[in-house]
Design a protein that fits this description.
The chain is α+β, with helices and mostly antiparallel strands and 187 residues long. Helix content is 17%, strand content 36%. It has three helices and eleven strands; from the N terminus they run αβαββββββββββα. The chain has a seven-stranded antiparallel sheet. Strands 1-10 form a two-stranded parallel ribbon. A two-stranded antiparallel ribbon has the order 5-6. Helix 2 packs across helix 3. The protein starts with a helix and ends in a 16-residue tail after the last helix.
């Protein structure tokens, strides 16, 4: 009985990636690219000897580090190919038609970008019947070092607009020409 319990505990720990909890502020500062958009399509293929999922997004709003583009392609490791599923625990998945906000790393040596903090960097948007949009992340394959709550990660979902406003506030350049607090005396 104890051996079975130990095996189940080990299996559970193998299916989760342990990550440092990141707040929205930390995700924003660590990301090279952030955007709000919709997944257009997805397909899986061999990429450099490894299974990879190719995703294409239509970009609704560029939030950080992206050139003005209508679409963006992202290649994530893992996926399902020939009936076999290959995955990195905690890597978010996206489906065609799904609305998302993604916080992405810079390109790795193979040119791939990753969601910052794995699933922490992939917000899935859900819209209610009245049109209200909420975002949520899937932490089912993540374990956090320390406490996620102390890192400012909300236990529940938040509104899409709250998320976008926080990111915009952290990425908007300061006013280049602030009003002069002490204007010279006009003569």
């Amino acid at each position: 009985m104890y051996a079975l319990l130990a095996l189940l505990c080990m299996a559970a720990s193998v299916t989760a990636s342990t990550v440092v909890p990141l707040s929205v502020a930390e995700l924003t500062s660590r990301s090279q690219q952030i955007f709000h958009g919709i997944c257009l399509d997805s397909h899986t293929a061999m990429e450099g000897g490894e299974v990879a999922t190719h995703l294409r997004f239509v970009v609704s709003e560029h939030l950080k580090g992206l050139e003005q583009t209508d679409t963006l392609s992202v290649i994530l490791p893992g996926g399902e190919l020939n009936g076999t599923r290959y995955q990195i625990s905690g890597m978010p998945g996206f489906s065609p038609g799904e609305e998302v906000v993604l916080f992405l790393t810079g390109a790795d040596p193979s040119g791939r970008v990753w969601p910052v903090g794995l699933a922490q960097g992939g917000f899935h948007v859900r819209r209610s019947n009245d049109g209200a949009a909420r975002v949520r992340r899937d932490y089912s394959e993540l374990r956090f070092q320390g406490s996620a709550r102390t890192a400012g990660i909300p236990a529940e979902d938040l509104s899409l607009e709250e998320l976008l406003e926080e990111v915009r506030a952290r990425t908007d350049p300061p006013d280049a020409n602030p009003p002069d607090a002490n204007p010279p005396n006009a003569q």
